[in-house]
Design brief:
The structure holds two protein chains of two kinds. Chain A is 73% helix and 0% strand. Chain A is mostly helical. Chain B is mainly alpha-helical. The chains are: A mainly alpha, B mainly alpha.
């Protein structure tokens, strides 16, 4: 995989997670108070940095074959989970990922939560909300960046893609001072699910000892095949949902929108 | 301590595997069979894992949509 593909894949994956973290941080900051929100964010970022500092160098100690087997398996499983959710949302079987709705729910919860200081933090609720949001979304960023980077021997480049995504989303968020509801999250997550699954399959099979025809060039076939299968499943589910049981024993549901990538929402 | 370890393990299980453990089981089994066939029988079964992953995805989607009925 060339450097541009690595950076682009990590950038898109991390941008999606950064958008979700931004929604939570904005809800905490605008509704409660910014100081505790930033404290929670800073502590979460420190934890994530520690994870990267430990896991990044540790992964380089493994032989490449073992690394590709383990990381390939993890990415394939992780990618399957993303892809499954993205397909179910695109086909109308799961609720859309709606940043504006999530923001409103977080704001409503933040407004009713009791104020209170703890452990030197002025607003414990804002702190924990921000900490959890940044840590959980950030873990996905770290997982993707480290696994992609370590397999390609370019953790620096992967980190560059991740950092660029976070900075872009943060800058747009600061300018907008609102959740980035217009970001096409479902399409992005659909694409990321395809990439995670494809690279997981590619590296996993290589790690198990198989040799791909054409070596690295095989990815040029694997990615489109996984994408075609994912789109095919989506269209099949949407048609079945409109017509009756999706599969033998499946449900009869009303028809969804028109585009498999834009009518559903994120992972 | 055991409660914390359990929570830690559950978090990572949910983080990596998610709602359907069968996909992870299929991936693990496909990788094991691939390694066995490559190293044991000298067969270059590069196609096995992608085929199993595609099948696992379809199986998982079928189960998910059937449950929603």
């Amino acid at each position: 995989m060339n450097a541009a593909a690595l950076v682009l894949t990590v950038f898109v994956a991390c941008a999606v997670e950064a958008v979700e973290a931004l929604t939570i941080v904005l809800a905490a900051g605008l509704t409660r108070e910014w100081r505790s929100t930033f404290q929670g964010m800073a502590v979460a970022l420190a934890v994530l940095a520690a994870v990267v500092a430990v896991a990044g160098p540790a992964l380089t100690l493994f032989p490449l074959g073992v690394l590709r087997l383990v990381v390939g398996a993890l990415l394939a499983v992780f990618g399957l989970q993303w892809l499954r959710k993205a397909i179910l949302r695109a086909a109308g079987y799961r609720d859309r990922h709606d940043e504006a709705g999530i923001y409103q729910r977080q704001v409503a919860a933040a407004r009713t939560a009791a104020p209170g200081a703890r452990h030197g933090v002025h607003d414990w609720y804002a702190f924990t909300l921000s900490f959890k949001g940044v840590l959980l979304e950030g873990l996905e960023v770290v997982f993707i960046a480290i696994t992609f980077g370590s397999n390609q021997g370019s953790i620096g480049l992967a980190a560059l893609g991740a950092a660029a995504a976070v900075l872009v989303v943060a800058a747009v968020g600061v300018a907008a001072r609102a959740p980035l509801a217009r970001v096409p999250e479902n399409a992005m997550k659909f694409a990321v699910g395809i990439m995670l699954t494809s690279f997981g399959v590619f590296w996993g099979a290589e790690g198990a000892g198989a040799s791909w025809p054409g070596h690295d060039a095989a990815l040029l076939a694997v990615v489109p095949v996984v994408a075609a299968v994912a789109l095919g499943y989506t269209l099949l589910l949407r048609r079945a949902r409109a017509a009756g049981p999706a599969w033998p024993g499946g449900p009869a549901r009303a028809a969804a929108g028109t585009s498999p990538l834009t009518s559903g929402e994120g992972s | 301590m055991s409660g914390w370890l359990r929570s830690f393990g559950m978090f990572w299980y949910d983080f990596i595997v998610g709602d359907d453990w069968r996909g992870a089981a299929v991936v693990a089994a496909a990788l094991a069979v691939t390694a066995l066939l490559v190293h044991g029988a000298g067969l270059n079964v590069w196609w096995l894992l992608p085929l199993c992953v595609i099948a696992a995805l379809g199986w998982s989607l079928r189960r998910a949509t059937a449950r929603k009925g």
